[in-house]
Amino acid sequence: MKNITSLNFWVHLTDNCNLTCNYCYISTLETHKSMSKGAINEFSNTLHKTILKYTNIKTVTLKLAGGEPLSKFDYWNSGIQSLIDIFGKQDIKLNIRIVTNLTILNDDIIEFCKINNITFAVSLDGLNEYHDKYRKFKNQKGSYTIIENNLLKLKNSKVLFAILVTISNDNLDGILELVKYLLDNNITFRLADAKGVNIDKVKLLEVLDNCYKLMENYDNFNIKYKHLLCDLNLIEISDTPCSMGVSGGAIYINGDIYFCHSQFGSNQSLGNIFEIDDLLSVIQIGYKFHSLSDECQECEFKNICAGGCPLYRTNENKSPMCDIFKSTIPKIKKLNKE
Question: Rounded to 10 degrees, what is the CA torsion of 96, 98, 99, 102?
Fold first, then answer.
């Protein structure tokens, strides 16, 4: 087992969602179930036991997600507060991020996040109509205007947030304009392709080239730490594309443990928090997903790309973004002044 110093978990708090994004890969949303306070407490207890067993672990990162987690804020916030209070007494750094569409925000949510230093990861796929093509309410009304207003509330409240941009053929034409908006407002952001969806690679490469040319004009924007393309490991090289199966995993509503949240609803659960007392050994059962192809092993960028997401590799066992990565990584490294 590797010398693990941190743990990372996607915590799926609810299957309830108020939007109908048609590229969503969470297959269980229509159940509308939510994680009970008892399950949150059991996760907290099991996490604590794991840390006591592996004394090198000093950092825990939790992504509170769904569904739309803020749609059930009043249901789960006391359980998460209890978890925060427990770890506040330990010599452990606890990072918490809410993964949200940000269509729901109120004073109670803002105050809870300010007190507990919780940050936001907000989905935004473009400006105006480019965002609204995909991210609509169930009445088919777009969500952009609401999100724009709520981003301003977060900014005025000094709550930290980053933007998650999912790129597809339908919003490619609006990506450059969105990136300019994010750069102008000094907003941290990630660009990523919609998983499992075919995309025009020629046009995507052209759009990304234009984005990185644009970034050359923003000397005051710390690109190295404020921008990410997919899951590229440009700050710390790694032989895996993400923490899943190594130091991270995903916890479903009922306590089932998965290699990745995209597997929710499948029969690929690795265990359950009510039945184990060592999360690390269970999540590393999924480590086998990270084997690299011979081509990847010989690539100069193997410790930056690491073969891409193992759940979405091509028949050649490499990332469908391989050619895009080979072209754009040198541009990003140059911008990072490496």
Answer: -160
| Residue 336 pLDDT > 90 | no
What's the chain's average pLDDT? 92
Fold of the domain built from segment(s) 6-290: TIM Barrel (3.20.20)
Say whether pTM exceeds 0.85.
yes
Angle made by CA atoms 123, 29, 264, in degrees to the nearest 5: 90
Query: In the block, which residue shows the tokens 């590797």?
Result: 2
CB 243 within 8 A of CB 8: yes
Q: Is 278 exposed, middle or buried (0-12, 13-18, 19+ CB in 10 A)?
A: middle
pLDDT tens digits for 79-104?
999 999 998 888 899 999 999 999 99
DSSP H or E stretch at residue 59: strand 59-65
Distances (CA, A) of 335 to 225, 226, 283, 338: 11, 12, 35, 8
Q: Is the pLDDT of residue 338 over 80?
A: no
| Residue ranges of the chain that CATH labels 3.20.20.70 | 6-290
Residue 220: both structure tokens together = 């005051």
